[in-house]
Design a protein that fits this description.
The complex is a heterodimer of chains A (157) and B (159).
Chain A: E1 8-10, E2 16-23, H1 27-35, H2 37-40, E3 50-55, E4 62-67, E5 74-84, E6 88-95, E7 102-111, E8 117-124, H3 128-136, H4 139-154
Antiparallel strand pairs in A: 1-2, 2-8, 3-4, 4-5, 5-6, 6-7, 7-8
Chain B: E1 8-11, E2 17-24, H1 28-36, H2 38-41, E3 51-56, E4 63-70, E5 73-85, E6 89-96, E7 104-112, E8 118-125, H3 129-136, H4 140-156
Antiparallel strand pairs in B: 1-2, 2-8, 3-4, 4-5, 5-6, 6-7, 7-8
The chains are: A alpha+beta (157), B alpha+beta (159).
Chain lengths: 157, 159
Amino acid sequence: MTTAEVPSLTTPADRVIVIERTFDAPRDQVWRAWTEPELIAQWWGRGRKTVVQQMEVRKGGHWHFVVDGKSETQGFRGRYREVTPPSRFVWTLEWDGMPGYLTIDTVELVDLGDGRTKLINTSQFLTDEERDMSLKSGMMEGVRDAYQALDKLLTTL
Amino acid sequence: MTVATNPMTITTPADRQMRVERIFDAPRDQVWRAWTEPDLIRQWWGRGRMLTIERMEVRKGGHWRFLVEGDRGTEGFEGRYREVTPPHHFTWTFEWDGMPGYVIVETIELVDLGDNRTRVVTTAQFFTNEERDGFMMSGVEKGMGESYLALDRLLAGME
């Protein structure tokens, strides 16, 4: 197995974080891994046990995941703003530990035409302070772990 | 019954912000109750039309969800409390079902004017200026004006 690609992180605009990562799987499979409850549960929480409490993949639908943490479970939730299979969806994302602080996340899947898919995740924060706090919180470690778990899942699809 | 009403001012003091100020002829504790008790907020928040309160957990992290009977049928609004500091301010997120995922973070501040009047300052922070401008053009001035008139009436009848 090759070494997992490290996700790239940029801050191309105020209040924005963009994370990019290429996966060795066709776009349809990556889309399924993001939008089917039994699949997303296997990787989204950094590979830790994730319970999908609610996941209505449609405009206006709500989602709520509970992830096992080091000492206690962590809740994450939000609502789908837009769902355009198989290339793009937009949802809000809020961690229960900081209720009322949310990001608007756009997930874009680019078909690279060679059986690989580029994922572009753009997070829009309400303020620069919130973005910078997120950058300092070890978020990238979580993203890296989650995407490695996604790599593993994709090899089974 | 004639109820006194005061002018409402709407400004855009910063990028992605809208601020609404209005004075109410009632003590702060009463205005706080009118914003935070389900049986009271349902009487005025929806332009004076009776709300259905599906959920209203007035505490940090609590959810709220209101249904309003409108001209176009029932409209849902929902969000979550970020901070609740009685009796002078709370912050909640605000989302209309018609535009899901477009969230406003709104802080409602009650200023005790010391003469049994209370200034309500609502600061709405949007993710983009386009969302703010769209919101302001959607009839918010009329809507909030009607809601605040209903709040005047409610406050006039409170002990």
